[in-house]
Amino acid sequence: MANPTVRVLTLLELLQTHRHMSGRELAERLDVDRRTLRRYIQALEELGIPVTTERGRHGGYRLMPGFKLPPLMFNSDEALAVSLGLLAAQGLGIAETAPALETARAKLERVMPARLKKQAQALGESARLELPSARAPGDERLLVLFATATQARQRVRLDYRDDRNQATRRMLNPYGLVFRGGRWYVSGWCHLRRDLRSFRLDRIIEATPLEASFERPADFNPAEHLAHSIASLPRAIAVSVRLHTDLTHAVEELGRNIGVFTPDGNAVMLHARTDSLTWFARQLAHQPFDFEILDPPELCDALAQQAARLHRLAERK
């Protein structure tokens, strides 16, 4: 029992179990000296647990009469983490969970010590997380279904309607869920396409777990796969640009959605597709690093037009 946290919890259990214990008894049970025991008592008090100290020949420690330990206890860091989690969950677009979030917060605040309750309430009233707003209503049933199927390695049959309003039936080995850009996606192996695919949950008409099981690739990252899939969407014009920076800064400045980034010596190759060279030129124009346009030549013209526009605006009196 070398871990101090374990000893503090054991101390609390001893005080709950025994109406009164002397300092010597507690120190022996915890295998610590009296000075360390006093630090552990102080740790309980900082958590809002009232420990009464009785001095004298028959003195010792006891929990304050009438005190009942709540079913959950949080230190300040844990209370902050739970409060932030509840705030973040409000932006996930699942309407069915909105009442549950409020009742969960109320229940947690009821069992928190006064100091932590005050901190949690202050955070809930003053903090706002700038997360992407939900662009499509989430379906709690589908979210739980795919999360459960992913964990159980269970194949799912789903009816899906794509962006062209065409419906297909798919057999999917779900590998993971991602909330991105205000929408929920499930990624996995599609048996119809015989390849990895991602599906928007708001476009799934129906889903049914099947008996068949599968093995999930150990190194699969659903968020990375989805980012690559979005960046590789078929568009009219192929673009190739060499960026004179490192991979980290290239992604930070341009975002993963713009295309596929590949390290190239001391530079980074960006391969992308776009429907608008004007839009792509604007993205390049405000970059803090140099770059070379390799293809198509028309992108150079679009960039020159952006430069001329900025030059004209800068010369206005």
From TrEMBL:
<dbReference type="InterPro" id="IPR051534">
    <property type="entry name" value="CBASS_pafABC_assoc_protein"/>
</dbReference>
<feature type="domain" description="HTH deoR-type">
    <location>
        <begin position="4"/>
        <end position="63"/>
    </location>
</feature>
<dbReference type="InterPro" id="IPR036390">
    <property type="entry name" value="WH_DNA-bd_sf"/>
</dbReference>
<dbReference type="Pfam" id="PF13280">
    <property type="entry name" value="WYL"/>
</dbReference>
<dbReference type="InterPro" id="IPR001034">
    <property type="entry name" value="DeoR_HTH"/>
</dbReference>
<protein>
    <submittedName>
        <fullName>Transcriptional regulator</fullName>
    </submittedName>
</protein>
<keyword id="KW-0805">Transcription regulation</keyword>
<dbReference type="Pfam" id="PF25583">
    <property type="entry name" value="WCX"/>
</dbReference>
<keyword id="KW-0804">Transcription</keyword>
<dbReference type="GO" id="GO:0003700">
    <property type="term" value="F:DNA-binding transcription factor activity"/>
</dbReference>
<dbReference type="InterPro" id="IPR036388">
    <property type="entry name" value="WH-like_DNA-bd_sf"/>
</dbReference>
<dbReference type="Pfam" id="PF08279">
    <property type="entry name" value="HTH_11"/>
</dbReference>
<dbReference type="InterPro" id="IPR026881">
    <property type="entry name" value="WYL_dom"/>
</dbReference>
<dbReference type="InterPro" id="IPR011991">
    <property type="entry name" value="ArsR-like_HTH"/>
</dbReference>
<dbReference type="InterPro" id="IPR057727">
    <property type="entry name" value="WCX_dom"/>
</dbReference>
<dbReference type="InterPro" id="IPR028349">
    <property type="entry name" value="PafC-like"/>
</dbReference>
<dbReference type="InterPro" id="IPR013196">
    <property type="entry name" value="HTH_11"/>
</dbReference>
